[in-house]
């Protein structure tokens, strides 16, 4: 199709050139300027492209064919749509100003066909390719297609102006205020300002703080204040029902669930020994951290938990209003409590029985008829028993010495208290100590005492014998080293002497080396010395044979001297004590939950409350404390003046 069009275009050009050569040149007809050829005036002046194009068109001396091609080019340009039934601006201009030359009938019909064809092109507005030619067209249509193709090829060589392709207009600018206004209409951005409390609570309702009422509230999760304000503003805007806020005006939230320590056990690696992990190690007790702050979990059935706190009374071990007798009485009471605790444990007697059992096990191990095990195993077991006997004997001696020292201290404090009462001639405390004596069988006691002494002596002799043999082995090895060093020194001196006799000029001083320490042979164990040490230690920590056992008993059976028989200083002290009263605050998890009634302080510095507090709890009890608050009644004397 393109080749055919090119051939037809070439034939048309040659035909037009031959027609121009045959025609006689005539003067150029005058014509009016077209509306579309007016100079385009803009802010920047006349457009140079249009001016050059107009000059070229004015200087063109070609004939009718050139005019015909320009007309075709003008028809192809985009024009506004023409209402039906009215001629276009181009047709009206040509009707009044165009000079038509005489042409054959076929040529007269061509402009009309071209005009119709141009109108179709204006409707298509810039399509590059012509629609395909249908079958059955006549020769007239083929010539019209040729003329349209010629016009298209001619248009490719024309210089198009800038306004044909580019639309010049100011840049689009959107104001910041307009953009913010549009975003405000489309988006919801909560405010970061603090919401007043009355907006988060119903009308005419005051905020209620459970912490001030003694209820425990867990520690809330730390959230920045700005985030809280944004959330509160959003909730109030989206859900005005205020169901997300509590009685205190804050957002409802559970306590902080983050644990400070992990709850899973550590994983063992292949390099670690499993036996080392199974060994029992002592560790100080630590506070257990629960998996949640609440006693009832999310999946647990509901239930009520109650904690009963029974406050019976309060006893002061020291107070600023104590007298000297009160100080001794408090010390005596503390010592007596220690005595009762040690007597209840009875650790000294337990260690004594254990020591006797170990000795019996050693005696059975030394009997070959009663030991079915091998000799090596038996000897190893006996050595372990002997080592444990040494440790148990030391612990028993320490416990017996503590018991005897505690009993002596109790008796000493009681004697000081009795002396003070005799010196001041009045009594402030009702304490009374009674020493009860328990008789023992003197003969059996002496036999048991002597058997224990002899058993301990034999054990110590055996220990000293083992130590003596070990020291002798060390002494023999050190002696052999010293003798070898001496022998080496003598041989070296002899060799040096021979060298001096043979070559006196080459005499050199040789370093004899460091002399090994010559040990002193250990002394053998003396039985008499060991026996004396054992008897002295037993006399300090044990009861002598035949001596009765003393059992102290502390009671409040004594009498307190009345005020009229006491000196003035003591009376003032007692009156000062009567002016004092106190009460206790009960705090659960660092929150006050209750308090006792105010009670006066007694003369014996004891306060009786006798109250039981029932607490309904929802969280795990982490701390429970009792705070003592003392109230003092101060009397201010009135000064009477003269009017």
UniProtKB/TrEMBL annotation:
Residues 121-132 have a biased composition (Acidic residues). The keyword Coiled coil applies. Residues 341-402, 450-481 form a coiled coil. Keywords: Coiled coil. Residues 1-16, 48-57, 498-517 have a biased composition (Basic and acidic residues). One of its GO terms (cellular component) is ciliary transition zone. One of its GO terms (biological process) is protein localization to ciliary transition zone. It comes from the Eukaryota. This is CC2D2A N-terminal C2 domain-containing protein.
């Amino acid at each position: 199709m393109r080749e055919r069009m090119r051939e037809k275009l070439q034939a048309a050009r040659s035909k037009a050139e031959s027609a121009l050569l045959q025609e006689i040149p005539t003067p150029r007809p005058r014509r009016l300027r077209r509306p579309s050829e007016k100079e385009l005036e803009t802010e920047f002046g006349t457009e140079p492209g249009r001016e050059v194009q107009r000059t070229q068109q004015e200087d063109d001396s070609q004939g009718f064919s050139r005019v015909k091609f320009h007309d075709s080019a003008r028809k192809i340009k985009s024009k506004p749509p023409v209402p039906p039934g009215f001629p276009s601006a181009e047709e009206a201009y040509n009707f009044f100003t165009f000079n038509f030359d005489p042409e054959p009938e076929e040529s007269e019909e061509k402009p009309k066909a071209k005009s119709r064809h141009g109108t179709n092109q204006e409707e298509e507005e810039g399509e590059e390719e012509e629609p395909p030619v249908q079958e059955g067209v006549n020769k007239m249509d083929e010539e019209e297609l040729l003329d349209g193709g010629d016009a298209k090829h001619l248009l490719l060589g024309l210089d198009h102006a800038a306004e044909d392709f580019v639309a010049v207009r100011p840049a689009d600018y959107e104001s910041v205020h307009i953009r913010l206004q549009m975003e405000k209409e489309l988006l919801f951005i909560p405010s970061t300002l603090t919401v007043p409390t009355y907006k988060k609570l119903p009308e005419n309702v005051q905020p209620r703080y459970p912490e001030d009422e003694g209820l425990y509230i867990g520690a809330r999760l730390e959230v920045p204040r700005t985030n809280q304000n944004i959330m509160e503003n959003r909730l109030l805007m989206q859900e005005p029902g205020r169901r997300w806020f509590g009685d205190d005006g804050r957002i409802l939230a559970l306590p902080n669930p983050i644990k400070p320590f992990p709850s899973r056990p550590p994983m063992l690696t292949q390099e670690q020994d499993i036996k080392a992990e199974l060994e029992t190690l002592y560790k100080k007790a630590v506070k257990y951290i629960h998996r949640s702050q609440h006693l009832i979990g999310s999946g647990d059935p509901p239930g009520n938990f109650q904690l009963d706190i029974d406050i019976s009374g309060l006893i002061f071990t020291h107070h600023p209003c104590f007298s000297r007798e009160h100080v001794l009485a408090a010390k005596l009471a503390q010592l007596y409590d220690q005595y009762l605790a040690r007597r209840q444990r009875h650790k000294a007697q337990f260690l004594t029985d254990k020591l006797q059992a170990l000795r019996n096990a050693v005696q059975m191990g030394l009997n070959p008829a009663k030991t079915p095990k091998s000799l090596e195993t038996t000897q190893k077991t006996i050595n372990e028993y002997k080592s444990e006997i040494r440790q148990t004997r030391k612990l028993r001696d320490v416990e017996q010495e503590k018991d005897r020292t505690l009993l002596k201290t109790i008796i000493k404090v009681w004697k000081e208290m009795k002396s003070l009462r005799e010196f001041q001639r009045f009594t402030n405390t009702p304490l009374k100590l009674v020493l009860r004596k328990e008789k023992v069988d003197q003969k059996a006691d002496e036999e048991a005492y002597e058997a224990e002494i002899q058993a301990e002596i034999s054990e110590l002799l055996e220990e000293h014998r083992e130590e003596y043999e070990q020291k002798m082995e060390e002494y023999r090895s050190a002696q052999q080293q010293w003798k070898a060093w001496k022998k080496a020194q003598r041989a070296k001196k002899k060799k040096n002497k021979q060298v001096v006799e043979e070559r006196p000029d080459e005499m050199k001083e040789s370093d004899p080396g460091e002399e090994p320490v010559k040990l002193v042979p250990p002394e053998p164990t003396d039985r008499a010395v060991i026996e004396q040490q054992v008897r002295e230690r037993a006399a300090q920590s044990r009861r002598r044979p035949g001596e009765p056992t003393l059992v102290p008993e502390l009671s409040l059976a004594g009498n307190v001297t009345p005020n009229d028989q006491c000196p003035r200083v003591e009376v003032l002290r007692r009156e000062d004590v009567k002016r004092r009263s106190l009460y206790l605050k009960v705090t659960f998890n660092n929150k006050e939950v209750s308090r006792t009634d105010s009670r006066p302080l007694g003369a014996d510095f004891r306060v009786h409350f006798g109250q039981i507090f029932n607490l309904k709890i929802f969280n795990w009890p982490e701390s429970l404390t009792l705070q003592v608050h003392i109230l003092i009644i101060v009397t201010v004397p009135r000064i009477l003046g003269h009017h």
